[in-house]
Amino acid sequence: MPFQTDADDTLLAKAIELRQAFHRDAVERDKAGGRPVDQIRLLKESGLASAQIPRDYGGRGASWLTILRIVREFARTDGSLAHLFGYHHLPLNHILFRGSTAQRQRWLTGSVAGNWIWSNSGNALSKTSTGKRSATGWIINGSRPFSSGSHVADYIQISWENADGARLTAAVPADRDGIVIENDWDGIGQRQTGSGTVRFVNLEIDDDELIGSPNLPLTPYSSLTSLLQQSVLLNVFVGSAQGILDEGRDYTTTSSRPWIYSGVERHIDDPWIKRQYGDLFVRTLAASELADKAARSLDAAYGEGPLLTAAGRGAAAIDIATANVYAGDVGLAVSSEVFEVMGARSATTENGFDRFWRNVRTHTLHNPAEYKKRTVGTWLLTGEFPVPAIYR
């Protein structure tokens, strides 16, 4: 089978088992949207939710290469679950980057013990929640959009702006009074990610739940969160391309009929079909190799810890931007062009092949390739690395 995951890694082997379980009703769940309750339960039971947490806190200390390959594995059938699993790591690592010693001990060991799933409700581009001081902390009101995973989370990382415009972040249990999950996500893709609105109604936050401070300078190490986000998405794109190519090949070999003027009895004997599948495979394989290269660069930067330099961070940012651009282009192209070689009968809602294109299209719009290409081009021409910021 093409795109075989390294099955000798126990974590990846478990991911393959889960992907096969997720596949059984992936099409139906994509149509239904809502909450993937049973699938999140299986994810928790597998132990993969704590795989990347350092061993000092009870986790497995898995590399980003492994974690991102798991994201890719899930995306081969279900981009929503791939997204949820990948984004679960963002607040966990925000705690590692900016949390106190006590907070890391409290939340990371608690996450391992409780098999917690994390999400975030702190979209940086939407300053739509505010906080006021209380006797013991803060009172939060307002809302935040694009709160992916909030509908299945045990803990949520939330953000708001205080009176002077400073952005604050905290970690709170998802079932705390004052958190209202609107369940209003209606995207054309990623339908089970719960990426809609979370409202805060007099939500009480204690001071010891604040993660870091707006006065702490952003370091190359603590700015890696944006690269983690980009890494998750690019692997959703690659896994989606792999998945539709797997499913397309199976459909083509069992169900597609040759075109009436092709001169062949079997669709797979048509030279056009052979060439097209060869082209789709080559592009997808190239995207996979770039994704692995970017993941190894991320591991190298991450491994430097607080000693990470701006140059080290910048080199990883360029590798990840390059992989992200190509993965998005390939994900969109493969998930669309494969219909041409499957044939007219493949384009039905029953088959559900369209879910791959819709999932990739939904996320690539949030991260325009044009600006990634400019980032890479600027570095190539001037040697300047991108200034750490959201999406960079």
Describe this structure in words.
With about 400 residues, the chain is an alpha+beta fold. It is about 50% helix and about 10% strand. The protein is built from 12 helices and 7 strands. The protein has helices spanning about 10-25, 25-30, 35-45, 65-75, 80-85, 90-100, 100-115, 225-255, 270-305, 310-340, 355-365, 370-380, and strands spanning about 120, 130-135, 135-145, 155-160, 165-175, 180, 200-205. Helix 4 (about 65-75) runs antiparallel to helix 5 (about 80-85), helix 5 runs antiparallel to helix 8 (about 225-255) and helix 8 packs antiparallel against helix 11.
What labels would you give this structure?
four-stranded antiparallel beta sheet; 392 residues; 12 helices; three-stranded mixed beta sheet; alpha+beta
Q: Sheet bearing the most strands, described? A: 4 strands, antiparallel
Radius of gyration: 22 Å
SS element count, helices: 12
Mean pLDDT: 95
pLDDT below 50 for ≥5 consecutive residues: which ranges? none
Order of helices and strands: HHHHHHHEEEEEEEHHHHH
Strand content: 5-15%
Morphology: globular
Question: Care to count the β-strands?
Answer: 7
Provide the structure class: alpha+beta
Strand order across the biggest sheet? 2-3-7-6
Query: What oligomerization state is this entry in?
Result: single chain
Task: Report the helical percentage.
Answer: 40-55%
Measured distance between first and last alpha carbons: 35 Å
Concise overview:
The protein is α+β, with helices and mostly antiparallel strands.
Please describe the topology of this protein:
Elements: H1 10-23, H2 26-32, H3 37-46, H4 64-75, H5 79-87, H6 89-98, H7 101-114, E1 118-121, E2 129-133, E3 137-144, E4 155-161, E5 167-173, E6 179-181, E7 198-206, H8 225-254, H9 271-303, H10 310-342, H11 354-364, H12 369-382
Parallel strand pairs: 1-4
Antiparallel strand pairs: 2-3, 3-7, 4-5, 6-7
Helix pairs in contact: 1-3, 1-4, 4-5, 4-8, 4-9, 5-8, 8-9, 8-10, 8-11, 9-10, 10-11, 10-12
